[in-house]
Design goal:
Structural class: alpha/beta
Radius of gyration: 25 Å
CATH superfamily of the largest domain: Vaccinia Virus protein VP39
Strand order of the largest sheet: 3-2-1-4-5-9-8
Number of helices: 15
Helix content: 25-40%
CATH architecture of the largest domain: 3-Layer(aba) Sandwich
Largest sheet: 7 strands, mixed
Strand content: 15-25%
Number of strands: 17
Amino acid sequence: MSHFESNTLSKSLCSVESENRFLISLFTGGGVGDIGLVSAGLELRVANELEQDRAALVSHNFPKARVFVGNIWELKDELVAFVQANDIGNPFLLFATPPCQGMSQNGAGSLLRNYREGRRPKLDARNRLILPALWIVSQIRPKWVVFENVPNMLNTVILDENSELRNIMDIIGSSMKPDYVGSAKICEFADYGLPQRRRRLITIYTRDETAKKLYDMSYEFHPPTTHSAEGGDGKKKWVTVREALRGFAPLDARSSETAYDPKNALHHVPVLDPKKYEWIKHTAENNSAFDNQCINPECGYKDNPVHGAQVDSKGINRANKDTPLYCVKCGSLLPRPYVIENGVMRIMSGYTSAYKRMAWDLPASTITRNFSFPCSDNKIHPEENRVLSLAEACKLQSISDYAYSWGPIKVEHRNYKIAPDTLIRNVIGESVPPMITHVIGRYLLAMSKGQACLISQFPKARRSVVLDQFT
């Protein structure tokens, strides 16, 4: 980096030191995403979380923050009053991650049609949680607003405050006008160096005048990417599972003695029952147990039909149910997932990604709350006979790269030295990777001083170098 580039970056970052860097976090979960924003230079002052156990983790990691626990509809007035009465002013950033379970990628058109024809559609009430979040924005007027959600949010419709059925993104856009400008973009988190393929919709709006001028000049509010599948053009290659999980002690899910690492409290896995262990044992890297071939030593036939899926007449992708469970050559039972119904074995219902090993030299698939289950999407260790451990999931989600702690916490009058496994697993799967929020936080701080303009003007080969100053 040239002296001019370095000097300009230093001046820009120093110039925002005295500004309001307060952060308000809604639907914060366990506060994992917030830890990235705080490491970027923001200060968490207020958070809201529905569940007490997750809120306990937020309070533990951010003891100076006021955490409002409960339904945001019921707490929004109290939350706003607290902000206005406690010298928080107009915070730098409001960060919100509304629940995504109700988001649907199908049916927006039919929902609207049914509604207009008088046939009231069934709507998920969780999708309307964006409304109190937008009301809070209107009251406390943060400089920046960031929403994180699944890409399906683009296609989701809800009943607005006037009970009219509208696209959720249209509601956000109209609510922000005229003071805010911004846009939504589907981001692949692996493109920022996360060792995981995780596509999310990042919506960013601002009322910051400097940033608005950049926006009018067609500069994006979303940070430039630093990685790509193949690398090149100034970018690094995606970070792989092999790179991320290097150094973890080997485990085996055959028994309780081999399924944990005594040196790492989070590096343990569930013991598998014998038949599931057998299925996994014969599964090759980046393959599903549904595709396992004959293990009869006198046969060893390798061309049994493999598993698959196809779209039915209703447009729904369904796994095949005729995948053979017995070798078509010798008739031996294949080591494939099965169930027993009325005394008869049949192939288990499951997609091609179920009971599937990860690939060493690719990023992991999206880490969800079900990563501890072998039937989950592509979550079996690349070569060891087990699922991912909590410690490995923390690494793939970048949590262990930051100063985040799982305890001690107190939940419902019970003290925990470390959070229960179920809570840890759920928070990992629900969270926004702190690596991503860290990059966003630093970039928005820079954008407020016109620094992103400087980054965008560098040749592509230099952008990732400059962006390293913010990570």
